[in-house]
Amino acid sequence: xxxxxxxxxxxxxxxxxxxxxxxxxxxxxxxxxxxxxxxxxxxxxxxxxxxxxxxxxxxxxxxxxxxxxxxxxxxxxxxxxxxxxxxxxxxxxxxxxxxxxxxxxxxxxxxxxxxxxxxxxxxxxxxxxxxxxxxxxxxxxxxxxxxxxxxxxxxxxxxxxxxxxxxxxxxxxxxxxxxxxxxxxxxxxxxxxxxxxxxxxxxxxxxxxxxxxxxxxxxxxxxxxxxxxxxxxxxxxxxxxxxxxxxxxxxxxxxxxxxxxx
Length: 262
Hints:
By secondary structure, the chain is an alpha/beta fold. The protein has two domains: about 1-70 and about 150-235, 3-Layer(aba) Sandwich (Rossmann fold), CATH 3.40.50.300; about 85-150, no CATH class. The protein has helices at about 40-45, 85-100, 105-115, 135-145, 165-180, 195-200, 230-250, and strands at about 1-10, 15-25, 30-35, 55-60, 65, 70-75, 150-155, 185-190, 200-205, 210-220. The strands form two sheets. It has a six-stranded mixed sheet, with helices on both faces. The chain has a four-stranded antiparallel sheet with strand order 2-1-4-5, covered by helices on one side.
């Protein structure tokens, strides 16, 4: 279970995240959906133990998240592969730390099997520089999936990819979550409503200035390719939430301050 309780974060006097509260069960796929700058990536870093809160806390299975831990794997927007290691060596490096009791042969077999799972069975000995962007990101996803943690955090991992690779990797991640039966919890950052509708079992709709939770919606159409009506209704509900938030901001009085050029 992943939980945020009264979580807020300020930086240099500016409120970045304001009173975030939500709870998701083990095995759920939560999409953090919101426009750029609303604090989605910052919230993900807090869940990863890479950023401290100003007040409130985040928890995993009832224990407060105070720093990085082996329960959590992260896929960032960039590929974060060591360029001096081959794709296989990148996986083996992480696996050796996670499974110190396993032999070299077992570690290599695990690395090969996870590369094969993401469609990279033939690139074990290729360096990242020889791989396309989509292949490098698939290798990073394979490395994250190979680790034993029960939480996978993904920070807009497909944002820089071409449309074909983006769709392919979306399908891959959804299928792995749906079919693996591992009970792995995924938190996925996106600003794309369609991506959130396709991937998430739950969608956290975030507003900005400061970042705050506008709604937490179940996605009844997740994994059901024929549930077009349910998807359309949820899409319209999310857009209504955004429209209401925008209208409320427009109704707020604007305060002008005297200063340079004003």
